[in-house]
Amino acid sequence: MDEVLEQLKEGIRKFQAEIYPAQAEIYRKAATEPQRPAALIVTCADSRIDPELITNSGTGELFVTRNIGNLVPAYGEMMGGVSAVVEYAVSALKVRHIAVCGHSDCGAMKAMLDPESLEQMATVRRWMRNAEAAMSVAESLAGPDEKPSELLKRLTEENVLLQVQHLRTHPSVAGAVAREQLTLSGWVYDIGTGHVRISEEGSRIFHPVLSEVKKA
Fold it and tell me: Which residue, among 75, 67, 53, 77, has the nearest Cα to 107 in the 3D structure?
């Protein structure tokens, strides 16, 4: 017996019995109306990242694409699925915001710091070329006594900033931004704490999204 498949089946049964009934009207409405997500989230394929959960979003509210390292190849480089998602989201769905979401303890960023770990993964190694400039910046900004954990954090941030730059090279994005119909941001999600830090309006600084203090 395939234990993993059986576990997935059990999850489907729970969804059908407990989750779907409570939101049946929402799902029925979603099935009969065109999708109108307000934002595109470009995030990592890491199984610990859940964009809908992090943003408390419901069915149909987010358009999401995931890949190793939350990368967006610059326009004309490695044209493929990510580029198609970006173009479709902006030109067809008219999303009003795109966020690139990196995260703590990212295996892709760790691999950038340890190239030998990718020797047996030629496809991943080639894909990670889209983050090489971030690696160069992170190393150039690193102090002589910077700890590996600090360099990883810096690289994670620089990679997010780089991918936002790459987004701006896509014609659909450039046009929508120029018309003030689209905004961009870069995020870093800390898996262990649940905290999210965001770079907005081209800033290189990531500011934390703080919880509102409830008044007594």
Answer: 67
**Encoding tokens for residue 46?**
């890491």
Integer Cα distance of 204 and 197 in angstroms = 11
> In what helix (H) or strand (E) does residue 123 lie, and over which residues does it extend?
helix 122-127
Q: For 97, phi and psi rounded to 5 degrees?
A: -150, 145
Q: Which one of 2.40.440.10, 3.40.1050.10, 3.90.800.10, 1.10.510.10 gives the CATH number of domain 34-208? A: 3.40.1050.10
pTM: 0.92
pLDDT, averaged in runs of 10, over the chain (216 residues): 93 95 92 95 97 95 97 91 97 98 97 94 96 96 90 97 98 98 98 96 92 62
